[in-house]
Amino acid sequence: MSWQEEAVQIIGTGLAAIGGLGVVIVGVSALVSKLIVGSMLAKQTHELSSKLEAIKKTHASELEVAKAELASKLEATKRELDIIKEKTLRFQNDKIVTYRIVIDMVARFLGALDAHYRQSLPQPEAWARFDQFNEERIKVYGYLAMLAPQAVMDAQDRLVDNLLLVANGNAVYEWRVVREHALMMLNAVRDDIGIADSPISYNGNL
User: Fold this and answer.
1) Closest Cα partner for 186 from 160, 155, 161, 164?
2) I need a labelling partner for 117 at 20 to 30 A (CA). Which of 9, 12, 107, 200 fits?
3) pLDDT digits (tens, 9 = 90+) for 95-148
4) Least confident interval from 31-40, 49-58, 134-143, 178-187
5) From CA 152, how far away is CA 141, in angstroms rounded?
6) Total domains, the chain
7) Does 121 fall in a domain?
């Protein structure tokens, strides 16, 4: 018998001898392996959970900081918008007050011209009204220059220039022409202060 055959025989005899014990050893090994793997998984799970919780806390802290910064920026923006709103409203109110002064000035002078051309206003009083208008229109021009856009300035210049020509006897007083210049100025004013999208027009019969 060769040594190979003898080795096989010895191994076979050994396995036969431990028979049932081998089954027990295999079962115990499997159980131990399962416990070890379970312990390792539990350890890794605990470590991962701890890391995840730490990450969540870190991001939660960063989120709170970001929220606080955003709230601060929103509050600052709100304050800036309130200031802009207040300045805009004040500026708009100043415009309206100035435009009313212009309208009052022109209305007074037109009343004087009408009365003069109907010969119900004496010449000395008519010249006194003209002097008053001349002083007021210079003052009003300065007010407008601080607030009004160029379109309003141009329309006001055309209206006042026509009135000055009439007052100095260099143009005929025509209500239709004066009305046209006045409407152009009023529409420029309406456009500037945003009262309406479409211009107004005279639809009467005079």
Assistant:
1) 155
2) 200
3) 888 889 889 988 888 888 878 777 777 778 878 888 888 889 899 999 999 999
4) 31-40
5) 11
6) 1
7) yes
